[in-house]
Structures are given as structure tokens and as C-alpha cells.
Design a protein that fits this description.
Elements: H1 2-7, H2 13-33, H3 37-44, E1 46-52, E2 59-61, E3 64-66, H4 68-80, E4 83-89, H5 92-100, E5 106-107, H6 115-118, E6 122-130, E7 132-137, E8 154-157, H7 161-169, E9 178-181, H8 186-194, E10 200-204, H9 205-211, E11 218-223, E12 228-234, H10 239-254, H11 257-266, H12 274-286, H13 288-302, H14 306-317, H15 337-342, H16 351-368, H17 375-388, H18 390-402, H19 410-416, H20 423-426, H21 437-459
Parallel strand pairs: 1-4, 1-5, 8-9
Antiparallel strand pairs: 2-3, 5-12, 6-12, 7-10, 7-11
Length: about 475
């Protein structure tokens, strides 16, 4: 071709030659980079993530951006050595439209891999398993099987994976009708059910586990699907990125990082008590205002979130300053006599003194723990120590090492602590027997109360 261009010297060669060079250069560049999304991300130094605002994906928490998908994509960005830019869209429908147009490198929004979606989109590896469940208003009679959905007012978020599944089953049930609502998220649908504006909806099990604690009137009726995987959807043609993610997710799973995320964002959702949750939400309005400023003041002195201290106090006494247990612990923070003496509390039934003393004691435990326990793990282990005692926590760490678990990880330690009640384990430990399940439940409940409290404070809604 180039010989031909040079030969045509009497046919305006330079203009033709320049245009041809531009054409071949563009064609060559396109051939090298087409579909090479991974290379583009690295060259630009930026990973563009499409997501949705929800408690299971991406949200603004007390310390800024947070969420399961946020943490996971931040980890990916750090591994690639690039910044992560988040484009938060209003609905799953909008997410799918945007990723199809290539407006982001990947969509991380708790997206279910379905047969229908797999025909349209390029998925990354699976990272979490969920089930689709029918969830209804607790005060109304809930269906127990598919046939009982007839006559039920059921709606789902438009563009969600639930639509695909409901289309498959609607021909099986006579008089079964459902609707989809545009510009609604699964969380908004759950809120409508919780407020009795809708009989039932369908949502993924992980979304329900988080949200039923905010709306305790929600009740799971039954599952309508087998286990289904969640996965990221990648921009069209991103084959190299898909290949990279296959190995990357294996590394995250083997390193225990995915387990850490599950512990962090879902580890406390297993505890759900309808009566207790409803009572807690009411007491946020009725009891907490009496003590909130004291929690804030005490927490500020020890540099801890006041909502954590308030949640701990609720777990201890349900914010009852006159609480007394059969074992002799007393007050809103349920201090033992030796602990109260250690932190300078003379009257354990004085709520202000008890709150300040409990905060000081928790601070001392945080400082006392080994320096190699870091981050949130340090906080959860300190809370467990408050409950079961320092000696038993040190025993659990020793046992964790024997079992090839990480003694600095709360995720690993909470699996070891229950073993302290089994003779084959505790007889070889310095401090012997302990009811090891109790500190695990203790931490889960505090995290649960704190999460509900912060959600309610941010929403400004009354229970």
C-alpha cells in the first residue's frame, strides 16, 4: 500500500498520503486497545464504578463513603494502583442502561447473575450467594407458598432480577398479578411494605437481612428461588478485565478478605428479634434523649463514636440506670464493683457516672490489647473483652493460633471463642472454662443496635 502511495506522485500524493497514515494509525490503535479496558484503567489512573445508594452497596456513613460494594471496589482500586470514581445512579434499571452504554468500567450494585442478564451483559466472578424471598407486612396474613400469592398486592423494583423470575412463575398461578415500580429501589419497596402501603415484595435475602432491622414489621414469607450469585457487570468488551478479576477474586477469597467483608457488613444481621427490635426503636425516641448528651460527652473524652457507647449501654441495661443483675453488676453500663472502683465510679446507679466509667473502662481495654490488633477488629475484640474478660480473650487468641486462625481478626476470633466452653479446649488454657458464645452474641447485638440507631438518626424518622 505504501509503495502504491509513493508511486502516485502526480495525484496529490501528500494529502492522500497523510489521510491514509491517519487512517492506518487509528485502525492500528483501535486494534490494540479495543476491549482492553484493564489497560485503559491503568493508563488513566481511574476506575469508574456505577453503583446505587443502599445499605448493602454504597452509602455515606459516619466517616464518609462506606458499604460492601464500596469496600470491595476500593480494594480493587488499591490493587490496581488507581483511584476509584463512583457514579451513583437512582435505580438498577438506570445502572443496567448505563453499563450497557459503557458509561463506567463496572457496575457494582448487588446485581444477581441470571440467565436473562447473562445473555446481555459480561459478568465478573461471583462473590456472594443470595436467595430471592417474598417478604410481607407482619400484621397481615403472609402467603406460605406460590399458590397463595393469588390476590396479594405485590410489587417489585423495575429492572430488578425479580421481574425475570416473576415472569417465569406468573403462568403457574391463577389470578396472580404483580407490578414493577420505576425509580424505586428494593429498599424503598421494603419500606413500603414495612409501612403497610403494600402487602408484599420480593428482595434478595441479604437486602432483607439488613432492612428488616430498620423495619421490624417485615416478615419473610418464603423463598422463591434457589441460591443465586451476585457479581459485577463489566463494560462491553472488557475481556481482559474479566480475566484479571477471575484471579483477583480467588486471591481475595483465599486471603480471607471476602470473609472479613461478610463479617463487617453482615456479621450482626443474624440476630433479629422482632419484639426486641421494635422496643429498641421506640426507646430511641423515649429513653435515649435523657442520656444522649452524656453518651456524647463521655465518648468525646475517649475518642469513640457516641452511638457505639449508646448501643453498648442498651445491650447492657436497655438504658435503665437502675438495672441490677443477679450476679451483682449494676447501672446503665452494668459495671462490676471492682471495675467501678478501677474507673472511679462510687455510685453505679448514677447514670452519668456509670456512662463515664464505662467509657473509660472500654478505652483502657482498647489500649491494653496487643498492638498488632488493628482497625475495627480492635474495637470488636475490646467489646468482647468488656464482656468476658481479658484473660479469656488472651486464651482465645492462643487457641486461634493453634487452629491456624488469625488471632488479630474478630472474624476468626468469634469462631474460636465458643470453643472455650468445651473441655477438650479449655483444659489446656490458662483461664479455663468460659461461656464463649456470650461475647460473640454481645458484640453482634451492639453492632446491630448501633447500626439501627445510626440509620434512624440519619433518616430522622420516628419509630
Amino acid at each position: 500500500m505504501f509503495r502504491y502511495l509513493l508511486w502516485r506522485q502526480d495525484k496529490k500524493p501528500m494529502r492522500f498520503f497523510k489521510r491514509s497514515l491517519v487512517f492506518f494509525f487509528a485502525l492500528s490503535l483501535s486494534g490494540c486497545t479495543q476491549g482492553d479496558t484493564l489497560d485503559k484503567i491503568r493508563r488513566s489512573g481511574k476506575l469508574v464504578v456505577l453503583t446505587i445508594n443502599s445499605p448493602t452497596t454504597y452509602f455515606i456513613g459516619r466517616d464518609g463513603s462506606d458499604g460492601y460494594e464500596y469496600a470491595l471496589t476500593q480494594k480493587l482500586g488499591a490493587t490496581l494502583g488507581v483511584d476509584v470514581e463512583y457514579r451513583v445512579l437512582d435505580s438498577i434499571e438506570a445502572i443496567l442502561t448505563a453499563i450497557k452504554k459503557g458509561e463506567g468500567h463496572l457496575a457494582a450494585a448487588g446485581l444477581t447473575r441470571t440467565d436473562g442478564r447473562a445473555k446481555q451483559f459480561l459478568f465478573g466472578p461471583d462473590y456472594k450467594i443470595v436467595r430471592q424471598q417474598v417478604v410481607c407486612q407482619r400484621k397481615r396474613r403472609a402467603p406460605r407458598e406460590l399458590a397463595e400469592l393469588a390476590g396479594i398486592s405485590l410489587a417489585v423494583a423495575a429492572g430488578s432480577s425479580y421481574e425475570e423470575h416473576l415472569r417465569e412463575i406468573e403462568n403457574q398461578i391463577q389470578d396472580f398479578h404483580w407490578t414493577s415500580l420505576a425509580d424505586h429501589s428494593s429498599e424503598q419497596m421494603l419500606e413500603r411494605v414495612g409501612e403497610a402501603k403494600l402487602d408484599c415484595t420480593v428482595a434478595d435475602s441479604n437486602i432483607i437481612a439488613i432492612n428488616r432491622r430498620y423495619y421490624p414489621a417485615l416478615k419473610v414469607a418464603f423463598s422463591i428461588s434457589e441460591e443465586q450469585p451476585l457479581a459485577w457487570i463489566l463494560t462491553p468488551g472488557a475481556k481482559q478485565l474479566a480475566k484479571y478479576l477471575s484471579g483477583w477474586f480467588v486471591e481475595q477469597r483465599e486471603s480471607g478478605y471476602l470473609n472479613q467483608l461478610n463479617t463487617r457488613y453482615y456479621g450482626f444481621t443474624e440476630i433479629f428479634d422482632f419484639v426486641d427490635t421494635r422496643a429498641f426503636i421506640r426507646r430511641i425516641d423515649k429513653r435515649l434523649p435523657k442520656y444522649q448528651q452524656h453518651f456524647e460527652s463521655a465518648a468525646d473524652k475517649v475518642q469513640l463514636p457516641w452511638t457505639l457507647l449508646a448501643a453498648q449501654a442498651y445491650q447492657e441495661s436497655h438504658w435503665n440506670p437502675q438495672a441490677i443483675s443477679p450476679t451483682g453488676v449494676r447501672g446503665i453500663m452494668m459495671l462490676t464493683l471492682p471495675t467501678a472502683s478501677e474507673v472511679g465510679v462510687k455510685n453505679r446507679l448514677d447514670p452519668i457516672a456509670s456512662i463515664q466509667g464505662g467509657a473509660r473502662y472500654l478505652q483502657r481495654l482498647l489500649k491494653r490489647l496487643p498492638v498488632d490488633i488493628e482497625g475495627e477488629d480492635r474495637l470488636w475484640i475490646a467489646l468482647a473483652t468488656y464482656n468476658v474478660g481479658y484473660g479469656h480473650i488472651m486464651d482465645a487468641r492462643q487457641l486461634a493460633k493453634r487452629l491456624d486462625k488469625n488471632p488479630n481478626s474478630w472474624g476468626d476470633l468469634q469462631s474460636v471463642l465458643p470453643l472455650l466452653s468445651r473441655k477438650e479446649y479449655y483444659r489446656s488454657l490458662k483461664h479455663g472454662y468460659a461461656r464463649g458464645k456470650e461475647p460473640v452474641q454481645y458484640v453482634r447485638r451492639i453492632r446491630n443496635y448501633r447500626d439501627i440507631l445510626e440509620k434512624k438518626l440519619m433518616s430522622g424518622k420516628k419509630g
